[in-house]
Amino acid sequence: MKFPWSHTTIVDMIKNDHKLEEKCNHVTADIAAGKLDMAKFVEELGPALTHTEADVRAKGTTLLSHVLHDLPSDSLNAEQVKLLCVFYGDRTLDHNIVTPAVLDGVEALSRMTNFPSTCAVPLLQSLFKRIPCQSQKKAERTLYFRTITQVSERCQVELKEWGSDFLYGVIGAIESERDPRNLLYLFEHMPTFIRAFPMYHLAEEMFETFACYFPIDFHPNPNDPNDITRSMLAERLADCLCATSELAVFAVPLLLEKMESSLLVAKLDSLALLVRCLSLLEVRQVAEHYGELWNALKLELLLPGVKEADKELLDAGLTAVRELSRHASADEPSAKLLLDQILVSLMASLTDASSKQFETSLRVVLSCASASEFCALYVADKLLPMLLAQLNPDSYIEIRIENRLIDSLQRIMAACAKWCCVGKLDPSLVGQVQKLFVQILQQTGSDGSEQTRSALRAVSCAPEMISSENRYVVYSKLVLLMLVPDSPQADAVEECLSSLAIRYSEEVKTLVLSKLMSHDFATAEQALVRRIFKSFGKLIVCHGYTYKMVDFLMAKIFAQPVDERLAIVAMDTLTDAVELGGWNELAKGELYVQYKLIDRFVEYANDDLGSEYLHSMAHLMTAVVKRLPVEEQKELILKRLPPLKLQQRADLYLASGLLGYLDESVPLVDHFENLVTDLTQLALTTDDERVRGVCHRLLCSLFNRMPDDEHHRGVLKRLLTLLRGELKKHNHQAVLVLSWIGKGLISRGHAEAGEIVDDIAELLDHPTLGHVATLAFEILTVEFPQLHLALVRNLFKQKLFVWVMKKLEAKIEQYAGTHLKALAFVFKATPHVVLRMNLAKVGPVLLRCLAQDDDRTVVEAMTIVLRFTREQDPFVKDHLQTLIPALLKLIVRQSSMNVRIEALECLLCICQYPTFLLLPFKVNVLSELQKPLDDRKRLVRNAAVAARLQWFMVGSEQPKPDK
């Protein structure tokens, strides 16, 4: 292809045509396609590139760089790239007006696939010597940094041979950079660079290049579209400071210096840097700083008021202590040196449990103990005698101090148990500790409840410390505590029982479980029964306890005569074990196969059983059936579903258990019509609210998974015809049945769902069914946790919104309260982004909802309005003259505290709007806000104070003086 401009016209074009780059886009495409040679293009640009005027050369170079930038990275061969590298290297000597174009072109060349490695050194030499990076503007510095990183990633061999001069150039380029985006780019790429190239004698200088930014002090512009945060920069900077062990060795003196700062972020960043650099340093490199490090940490951890003033700093300090101890554990003499320094400085506090610093000092040494086995043993050997000595004084000891000491002993034993090293402690110390805990458990009465809790937790974390003869004392205490109603140590007792059950299974079975199981639960309080059965449920999944626990619970479920109160708790316990325990084998292998749970329920269930029993039975069946393989579900349905007569209450609950969470692939074609017909008839005629609920959920699930064929559509149409006939009879139950069927169809996106929504919407005007129709819309939109919908289509909530708005939007001025309440339910379920897109239609409805007498309607609408108010949506700004008066009426609405609070919060958010919009309302709002200041509810008064204060400040801002 011939170049589009001649030698004589190219200069004029560059001087006079401001859209030259756009006209050159086809040149880029032709070079990429091989129709135009790059060398020819450069030759034709020659008059511009060598022109006597610097601005012409700059424009010519910019044109060339623009083409290179737009070319695909594999468009040029090595020779072409080399030629251009030489050209741009020479251009680094040109006038500084040409420099931006040169840097753009060099960066484009560095991305080329065929960039020759032999060009790396000459090209970077030209940049380092002739173009000072920090003299350029931000955009050019970005190109400079990208060139360095891209070339260094691809040409490591040649740049390593260049040696320290290359590192000098890089350091000179990046030092003193201030732009946050450039810094983020450097912080992200320089760790890889530092690890790739030997630092020679420049390691400290490279470290100082980044150390000058530590700690990061950056406050992002809230209007900046690029989300750069201080924490992001701080984390990336730490990566650079700890990129290698060569650099990390300088991090300790740096962080020690910054720890002296009064800034919280400086202290937190320093502690985080300490933790980061430890993994790169040898113990000896850190050991020489132990004294300084501990003195710095001690100032943050032990100064009065620090832990109350800043929990984050305290937690960071404790983390640093733990990691420092863990690092030192690699060399036991060094660990001993560190721990001795810490323990000696804390000795005064640890030997006086009444000291204000006792708890903080204890947390410090426990952090050390959690670092390693060596640290745990060392701390325990030093600390246990101190604490035991304080528990045996000659004088009286306060119960508060005694509780604190016993709790401290328990925490130390827990630290040792974490490293499984209780057996390595001094046996005499362990004997004294376990004797103390056993004595506490032998106490009677509630005086020592806190001590009992500590003793139970100690036994729980380290059961091996209790000797065999003393374990019988523990078992006896566990039985007693388990049988205490409303025991304050219930959680500690359960934890202790579980721990002992795992380690001493036979003893626990004989001495604890047998006694508990033989207890007369028939007369026990329901809360106590639930707590003990819950403990049994936790043991079901433990090896060796499954059959014993299941046998006990099954005996309660199928007792003759049955105690329904106990049977219900037993079924709920098994249900939790199946669902929360996550053990599918319990459902399939044990309950279904071994115990034949489903078969026994089918044989046992009858209408004489209470609804609560049948309800829990259905839940347990559902939990088991849900975890069966599809083939077994098919066999179960084939065997057990046909004989069921849904008009009988027990059979209905059995059907609920079988069908509740059935896999969608299990066919119900042979049963579908009979099922939905029977369920509909039962739902329309029964007076039992719980039975109706079961029918509704089953209908919803069945129609959700209904095959979409002619036969099943016919079943649906016949059923809808029946329900419409009932609607003409003013049957309220027909509306609810219709809504549940519609819910199942809507969630799967069925075509008939829109017709059902129309039917329900038409009922909103009905004089007797209108109220039920609003509840139907709530059913259509609310999610029910125990409802299984096998088929859920994406965006079905948006579809429901479209259906409802299409049906009702034409009569917006005629809406009655029922219409508005129904729309409020639909809006609540609709994604916020959809509401925002349709706010021109939705907004007026929401404003009308706020004027309704029904609190539920107002609450749902108020929640949505509040979201839009916080976002300062233009619709809200344009309708303040309607919204603010409505809110002023709601802040004194006595029928609902939530309405008053949300209205006040909305008024508070409106204060953030431009002053000129608010000033016309200020006087009236301040007057009305006086009323809720005397509200009988404290939360309302607090919200009123906050709102009135902000409205009082509207318009009081001082104008900025003219400069």
State the total count of DSSP E strands: 0
**What integer value in Å does the Rg equal?**
39 Å
SS summary, helix count: 55
Q: What do the pLDDT scores average to?
A: 88
Class inferred from helices and paired strands: mainly alpha
Question: Residue share in helices?
Answer: over 70%
Q: Can you tell me the residue ranges where pLDDT is under 50 for at least 5 consecutive residues?
A: 958-963
Give an overview in words:
Helix 10 (138-154) runs parallel beside helix 13 and helix 52 (880-890) runs parallel beside helix 54 (915-928). The radius of gyration is 39 Å and the shape is globular. It is mostly helical and 963 residues long. It is 70% helix and 0% strand. Residues 958-963 have low confidence and may be disordered.
Features:
single chain, 963 residues, mainly alpha, 55 helices, 70% helix, 0% strand, globular, disordered C terminus
